[in-house]
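sanity check this fold:
=====
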Amino acid sequence: MDQSPRNSECVINVINPNTTESMTALIAQAARASASPRTRIVGRTSSFGPASIEGHYDEALATIGLLKAVAAGDAEGASAHVIACFGDPGLLAAREITTAPVLGIAEAAMRAASFVATHFSVVTTLSRTRVIAEHLLRNYGLEHICRRVRAVDVAVLDLDKPESNVRGLLLGECRDALTHDGIGAIVLGCAGMADLAEELSIELGIPVIDGVAAAVRFAEALVGLGLKTSKYGDLAFPIPKARTPI
């Protein structure tokens, strides 16, 4: 039987790097909805870190739990890993410790937007996190394609609360972006918004991109191509040395 990557099962370890189980369930559901029939999604919640990631400090705390989740996925034979937080926390560190492809949902969504539109805007949660998205855009070489990073000022843990009116706020901000930013696509700046992308896209008539779905599909493509994370140069395995365990 042909056991090439194209014909074997693809197992994607989708990691929620915060500790909120309900968000993991939402993220895993979105990942499964976008995955191919031969792909198995394993949703994993970080065992260490903050309940939500809404700043530089939260990202730093989340990295250890994220790396543990990558190692756990590798131990179970994961074909690829997806970091389901829009700040892409710990992305390069995660790539150091595994040969499997590791994708961050921000990079995946931004690159997907660049494939389908000349310019895009990002709509994220809190205003204080806008700078994180702006830093990523520069790091990924996409700053000139993104017109603006916008925020609806709803906390991550409030996204699923009806009284927050997240859909209405998102729709309004997306309409403003479409009217004023000169864009052809919108990137949703939080994994907790994954379930809203399709209906917003229909409502607005432009691509509205969820990074969870984009990362899963890109991961499938990399696995299908038989590509691994390079172990040459800065992404080589960490240098062996004494390290204090967490």
In short: The chain has two domains: 10-104+213-235, 106-211.
